[in-house]
Amino acid sequence: MTVFSELRMRPAPAAAARGWDASTTARLAMAGAVIFVLLVGANLATPLYPLLQAELGLSTLDVTAAFASYVLALVATLMLAGHWSDHIGRRAALILAVLAGLAGGWVFAQAGTLAALCAGRALQGMAVALATGASSAALRELLPSRPEWASRFTLLASAGGVAAGPVIGGLLSLLPDPTAMPYYVHSAVLAALLVPLFLLQARPAISQPPVSRPLQVLAPRRPSVSREARGAFWLASGVGFLSFAVFGFCLSLAPGYFAQVLGTDSRPLIGVLAGLTLGASALSQLLAIRGRFVVPAGLAILGTAILLLGAAGAWHNPLLLVAASLAAGVGQGVAFRTVFNDVASRVEPARHAQIVSTVYVITYLGSAVPVLGLGWATGVFGLAASVSTFVAVCGTAALLLAALTLRQVLRRS
Asked: Is residue 236 a contact partner of residue 339, using CB atoms and an 8 Å limit?
């Protein structure tokens, strides 16, 4: 089955199937690798923002606008096309995502204005959105008897890519042409991923459209969740929104904040610090923590750690900054994995990509709306005061959510 027949939603007969009949392990690796590499590319810019501010004369609000353009494009694409992989197939959706990622990286590398930066970031957001539902659904289909591990692999690849992006971006920025070279290297890796994707013998889409009106199934859909999954859906969305507000801060304004706290302008060091929370979140997916109190405990750790991030900045304490960043990642990773897996286990396979995409719509809005407000506040009140208020609000919200989930667990008991 060729990519073009998949895009036309006209699968070839089984007898005509050709290509690389990859093993389940290889398919798992490819599904995880695509979303991982795309998210690495989407976050290469984190340690480069201070340099771009100086080169292009950008304000703090301009930096948050560039970051938010990625998130808003991602959210819009999830809403419009989050269900496409159910109909065109997982492989075709992943190939489209890689092509959009290549275009976004090239535009961002050549950008000389804020508008060009926003355009490149928007293309990267579209790429991540196309891959999000497809890779998650593919992992779930490849591990039908182990849905919890499918969710873990999804979050490990996602959080791992976001965490690795700033670190890799900081290291590659030491090469000549520091704002463009990271994207040239990343584009080469993305192009290499296209080879096995094109060679792969694709599996048919799980939901075939009517022959008379095939394009109708690709039209935007009104989000809906079954009654059985509704409570789990809103809890996962709330936890995701809150935690991604913190991630959004780490990936946009945190480099400048960390540079002030540590008194350094080292881009590799800033990249490592920005990726600590995301890296801890990714590694927490490997922890086999179970129990009724996992979600409230994780949220309590997250809330406390967020408040300590503000204290570390006020006291200029690097050790507390590192410890709080790691604790926030572990708390978020454990809590979000549990609620995300609860949603995934309650959703029927035919709507998995659509529902997961809807969860991520709300989750990723947490990376845009609060961060835009923080960027505006920074221009008015200054970075230190704005960050202190931001962490106070987010930390308190996490602790309140921990109390609510604890009450819910006790009532069930």
From this structure: yes
